[in-house]
Amino acid sequence: MTTKKRAVIVTRRFDVSAERVFDAWLDPETARKWLFTTGEGALVRAEVDARVGGRFAFVDRRDDVDVEHVGEYLEIDRPDRLVFSFAVPMYSPEYDRVTIEIRRLDKGCELTLTNEMSPGIYEEWGEGTKEGWTKMLGTLAERLEA
């Protein structure tokens, strides 16, 4: 029997091109400025192997504790779609599936992020996950639109 996944969905408009938004996910120097960072921590490692089957690792140091965010790129279709697995091993061994879809607009683009997770993880982390992605996409918009 398979367990039906639950999803967190976040949508954000950007006043920059779809290509710039897409590239911000895969360029480690850009990604380290917004992806998996918190105001309380400092990103101490950003590794990106931007190819299907490639992996990523971002480590955010929070109160002298290193929180690692890891995953594998499953689909890369620049600038429209990016799919990757995602986990924070410190909190759970389970991997989520994150899908990024970017739609061009007359001015800028719109990004829809879908984070699929097991019902148990959703119950424990769903609201926090939505808040986290919303905050990160806001930081990305600020950086790209500055």
Please provide a brief summary of the model.
By secondary structure, the chain is of the alpha+beta class.
Verbal overview:
The structure is a single chain. Helix content is 27%, strand content 42%. With 146 residues, the protein is of the alpha+beta class. It has a single domain, classed as 2-Layer Sandwich (Alpha-D-Glucose-1,6-Bisphosphate, Chain A, domain 4). Strands 1-7-6-5-4-3-2 form a seven-stranded antiparallel sheet. 22% of the residues are buried. The model has no long low-confidence stretch (mean pLDDT 94).
Major sheet summary line: 7 strands, antiparallel
Q: Please trace the helix and strand order, writing H or E for each element.
A: EHHEEEEEEH
Sum up the overall morphology in one term.
globular
CATH architecture: 2-Layer Sandwich
Mean pLDDT: 94
Helical content (DSSP H or I, runs of 4+): 25-40%
Provide the β-strand percentage band. Answer: 35-45%
Taking the alpha carbons of the first and last residues, their distance comes to 49 Å
Detail the poorly predicted runs.
none
- As for the number of domains, it is 1
